[in-house]
Design a protein that fits this description.
The chain is built from 8 helices and no strands. The termini are far apart. By secondary structure, it is mostly helical.
Length: 205
């Protein structure tokens, strides 16, 4: 019996050692591939940015005159006004290495600023919409949220609130229109957002 235990222990140890060795080799290969790709990216020449999917703000949907005495909403208004003439691009899920390969290493600072503008936009719209909803302005909140979704936002609270508004307005079927956007998101939040839609669908039945 002791022999079998000893043999089993040896086999288990050998299996662990082999698995560990394969894991280390795989990690080393991935790291080598990353640095090769990064080297190529850093040597990619500047390319035109004219064809980027720039986001234009439809200023008519932003309720600039609602709740004028609310300081938080005034902050949101000022942020939107500061963004309306800036380049805004949603690069969610795209690494800096990929951006350099696509558009050239010399453009990386510009591209990063465009993406930061988008992040600020998506967060501001969510917060503004939530404040409008909390104050009884569901229609206005809905407009902002639908615009955010059209830009490919991955802010899960945006989808959750929009689903709630659709249900309260008696139009739960509109939730179906959110699935194509959610399922196409290049984001770690993609599965979470799809699950939010599914749960909202089920609660509407």
């Amino acid at each position: 019996m002791n022999f079998f235990i000893f043999a089993s222990t040896l086999l288990l140890g050998a299996a662990i050692a082999i698995a560990s060795s394969k894991s280390k080799k795989s990690a080393a290969a991935l790291e080598r591939e990353f640095w090769q790709k990064e080297h190529a990216a850093n040597n990619t020449r500047r390319k035109s940015l004219d064809d980027l999917p720039y986001i234009k703000l439809p200023m008519e949907i932003f309720p600039m005159d609602l709740l004028p005495d609310d300081p938080k909403l005034d902050d949101y208004r000022q942020i939107i006004l500061s963004l309306k003439d800036l380049p805004i691009v949603n690069f969610t899920g795209i690494s800096n290495t990929e951006l350099k390969l696509r558009y050239g290493a010399p453009n990386i600072d510009l591209l990063t600023s465009y993406d930061q503008n988008y992040t600020l936009l998506a967060r501001t719209i969510q917060r503004w919409a939530q404040a409008l909803y909390d104050n009884g302005y569901s229609d206005e909140a809905c407009q902002l949220l639908e615009f955010a979704v059209s830009t490919g936002t991955d802010v899960s609270a945006t989808y959750r609130l929009l689903c709630s508004i659709y249900q309260e307005q008696g139009t739960p079927e509109k939730i179906q229109s959110l699935y194509p956007v959610a399922e196409s998101l290049n984001s770690a939040m993609q599965k979470t957002i799809v699950r939010i839609l599914q749960e909202s669908d089920q609660s509407s039945d």
